[in-house]
Amino acid sequence: MVLEILELGFMQRALIAGVAVAITASVIGLFLVLRRNSLFGDALSHVAFGGIAVGLVTNMYPLWTGMAFSVLGALGMAKLRQSTKIPADATVAILLAGGLALGLLLSSTSGNLPNIFSYLFGSILVVSAEDTLAILAMAGAILAIVILLYRQLMYVTFDEEQAKVSGLSISKLSYLFAVLASVAVIVSMRLVGILLVSSLIVIPNVTGLLLGKGFKKTALISMGISIFSAVTGIAVSYAANFPPSATIVIVLITVFLATLAAKYSSKKQMAEKLEAAIS
Amino acid sequence: MQVVEIERLSYAYSDSLVLDNVSFSINEGDLLGMIGPNGAGKTTLFSCMLGLLGGYTGTIKIFGQDIKKNAKALKSIGYIPQRKTIERNFPATVEEIVSLGITRGKVTKEKITLALDTVSLLEQKDRRVGELSGGQQQRVLIAKALVNDPKLLILDEPATGIDLETQNKFYALLKKLNQEKKITIIWASHDLDAVNRIASSVACINRSMFFHGMTHEFFENPDLLKAYSESSMQAHMHLHDHDHG
Lengths: 279, 245
Prior knowledge:
The complex is a heterodimer of chains A (about 280) and B (about 240).
Chain A: H1 2-7, H2 9-34, H3 40-58, H4 62-83, H5 88-110, H6 113-121, H7 129-148, H8 150-158, H9 160-165, H10 170-192, H11 197-211, H12 215-240, H13 244-278
Chain B: E1 2-13, E2 16-27, E3 31-35, H1 42-49, E4 57-62, E5 65-66, E6 77-80, H2 94-100, H3 109-118, H4 134-146, E7 152-156, H5 164-179, E8 184-188, H6 192-198, E9 201-206, E10 208-214, H7 215-219, H8 222-244
Parallel strand pairs in B: 3-8, 3-9, 6-7, 7-8
Antiparallel strand pairs in B: 1-2, 1-4, 4-5, 9-10
């Protein structure tokens, strides 16, 4: 069965793209989750939805128009946060609603609704060789920049004020990170779709935080969980004829719940041992 | 040698003047206790000295360099902010946090080990920083500052909210850093007793400089102490009025 899956061209592309997306989303997601910006990815994916609709209406490559909207949305959100007193969650809500409204409006007027569904719910099994290469290139660029700026990003995530005292340019880093996050969202959309992007960003990292001791170790654990869930989800969806995006998310949640249960039970056992030792 | 020279420094937040014509200097090797009531402008003063706030009038020189013209001198400053709670689930280890302090030269295990050893936290290096007690977290931040080999340490009410025993250990560490490592220290505190015990000089600020001199000159002068407690009481009542206003 496994060999049969691996021999199919569309499955090979799906698995390669899936692994690249899993790595990218989890790496960017760790910083977002720790900065309490878990819904940032959701807002960007909805803005990208508006951009994709513009691409479909104007016959431009939708992923590029989606990326342009997503990057502009991310930069706008970073600017709003730095120069106004609008709360962060309110900027997320504005972008989220605005992007979705624009997308719905354009797609309904153009009669291109069926096409837009593949962006809403993902379509990893029909990803082309060209798409796979584009995903690999974008994922590679994001990963390289994060590795290069790892310490600076960790410092800003830990404490912005202290990072600024140490000479880091917080505004430049914030803008750069906003761009990285928006590209990561575009990359992830092919795997799980606009509506489920935040699951890839949030769930592996929340699970990783339950297990990891150390920033680097947590990032690697989250990446491992993300890759495992993407590969398992794609394989199960092919075998059982399930939608891949939903299957991947269910695998992610299952891993999270299993980890939570294991963690709770080991804590309980330790407390019992401690109690026995005291008495 | 003068480590810090501040001349006619003023700073206002929109329509409210927080620092008014403040001038003072600090010599190499000083351990300066900075006292003043809440809202007196201590944190604003530090923010200006650290380059976090521009828009002030007057001059701030660190190691002889005007920080508006040359910000390089800021790299010689270690800063420990007011105690904040580090989230329990923040995954970085103590070692990883201390390594963030290295902004000059290579990140090496030796530098991190030395800094952690100085603050007696070497055994905790692999623990998540969020799991440590408040006092231990403050020592991690000191190690993060020390790892960059600072010539000047600025601490903004670092021991607030820490139990008495840990506070005393913390003050002993400050004294050790000042006397053994020869680091000049500026330390803001509300703990007059601790300032009296370990500071070599005192600066008392309440929007403008109220007193700057040797520690014994301040604490042996009943008129100064009385004036300080009155101004603290007024500031407290002013804040209280604002809270309920």
